[in-house]
Write a structure and sequence with these properties.
This protein is an alpha+beta fold. It contains twelve helices and eleven strands.
Length: 331
């Protein structure tokens, strides 16, 4: 088409026509089109176009922060771009941590005993944990529609983990999670937060992982299988070694013992008073099925020990050790 035709043909510059054409573009092409001229920029920034893009982008995502969802109502373009940036954030807020149901399983590095007893490895629903705003953590089950909590310890954020890099800690957020398990009276190796391609949060330690969204069954999501996870025992060597030897972890804090009877009024994390922990039955047995304490039985840790440590901890199973060394390669 000749340039004179481009200059005089009114349909090419009609806002309605541009809107129709631009509605077929993806976000990247829209941003490019917006650089052509002011008219194209105005149409390419139309609320309706970006609202539809938000709908498509978020349709298969398990988590988009509420403030971004609210922003979409008036500034859909900004909401779209902000949500992509947020999906890479690995710092979690206290409110987010406490709002999710965390599904937990062990890694192969925990040892054969844990593979035999962990529900996920046996094609059963994974263990479930819940965090509360009073810094307590509980495992819980649901029987006949009734939620039953079993408080197992305390949680806190720390600023560094095995020299893997600093992650800022504030009173309201953090990137490294440390759990103090009450029945064993100590902290267990740190959980590191990551983001899945569905935008959900998940955590890894050297011996376990948890997802803040329904955990896919074994074989359903290769990215969450052990061979594709990010953290190895070698990454956690300072913590793994200290835990195996019964020594305090770096930055370990000893929480005062707590009475689960006194914690029935904890905030449920969502801010709702009607469905919080106080409305559920509390199991005072303190049977730890948060299996992050895999190292309670040192014979199933399968972590190389320093010279002389065998006498302290007993022999390791060579067969299990070989399996772990073969599966702990970083992706």
């Amino acid at each position: 088409m000749e340039s004179s035709t481009l200059q005089t043909h009114p349909a090419l510059f009609n806002g309605d026509v541009l809107f129709l054409v631009f509605s077929f573009l993806d976000a990247k092409d829209l941003l490019i089109a917006a650089q052509v001229c002011q008219q194209w920029r105005d149409v390419a920034s139309t609320q309706g176009i970006w609202d539809e893009l938000c709908e498509k982008l978020w349709s298969d995502k398990v988590y988009v922060p509420e403030q971004i969802k609210k922003l979409r109502k008036t500034k859909a373009k900004e909401a779209y771009l902000t949500s992509i940036k947020d999906s890479k954030r690995c710092i979690i807020t206290n409110e987010e941590l406490c709002s999710f149901e965390w599904n937990h399983r062990m890694k192969l590095t925990a040892g054969e005993m844990w593979m035999q007893t962990d529900p996920w490895w046996n094609r059963q629903p994974p263990r479930r944990n819940k965090f509360f705003m009073d810094n307590t953590v509980a495992s819980y089950t649901e029987v006949d529609g009734e939620v039953k909590f079993n408080k197992v310890g305390k949680w806190r954020f720390i600023g560094n983990c095995n020299d893997l890099g600093e992650r800022a800690v504030t009173e309201t957020s953090g990137g490294y999670l440390r759990l103090h398990i009450a029945p064993i009276g100590r902290e267990v190796p740190t959980q590191i937060f990551f983001r899945h391609n569905n935008w959900g949060f998940y955590t890894e330690s050297c011996w376990s992982m948890s997802t803040g969204f329904p955990m896919p069954a074994k074989g359903e999501d290769p990215s969450l299988e052990d061979e594709n996870l990010k953290i190895t025992v070698e990454d956690f060597w300072p913590e793994a070694q200290a835990y195996n030897l019964g020594l305090p972890l770096p930055e370990e804090v000893n929480f005062a013992p707590f009475d689960s009877d006194s914690d029935n009024d904890s905030d449920n994390g969502d801010g709702d008073d009607g469905e919080g922990e106080g409305d559920a039955d509390i199991d005072h047995d303190m049977d730890v099925d948060d299996a992050d304490n895999a190292a309670v039985n040192p014979h199933n840790l399968n972590v190389p020990l320093p010279d002389g440590a065998q006498n302290l901890m007993g022999p390791m199973e060579s067969e299990n050790r070989g399996a772990i060394e073969g599966s702990s390669k970083r992706e």
